[in-house]
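Researcher: Go.
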Amino acid sequence: MKHGKERDLVLKQIFQFFDEISIHYYFTKIETETFLPGIQIKNGSLQIDMEKLKYPGDLLHEAGHIAVSSSAERESLNDNVVENNSEKAGEEMAVLLWSFAAARKIGLPSEIVFHEDGYKGEAKWLTEQFESEKYIGLPLLQWMNLTDFEGENAFPQMKTWLRE
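Model: Structure:
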């Protein structure tokens, strides 16, 4: 997504969503190389370098890592959350589905999150799965008490956006 009005609107929607659900973010210069361009997790908050940010949807993915982490460990999250942490690697499917639900909630197309330059070449497949309601990772979100199997809080609706 190039810089311009469309990008600005997408970013505005994402930041409003973060404000609503209490995902903390700060605008700063990031001097080090990061896992995703222009985004770094520091002490459970998103650090965002708007000049280096390449894909606005990556913000939702990284916010998902913060959201699905327990409240007790949230503030200790830094940098590449899954690197050298097998427990966090297991949460990746929940993060993918959380970011899909977040995009739905704020009215963004799935392709904003699952862009062609990410997800190890599986972005199109992930979009197809989620769009056809094959919610890989749903049992994790339910176990985390973020959504329900059925009823008014059935996925992609969420009971809450941040894990207790």
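Model: The chain is about 45% helix and 5% strand.
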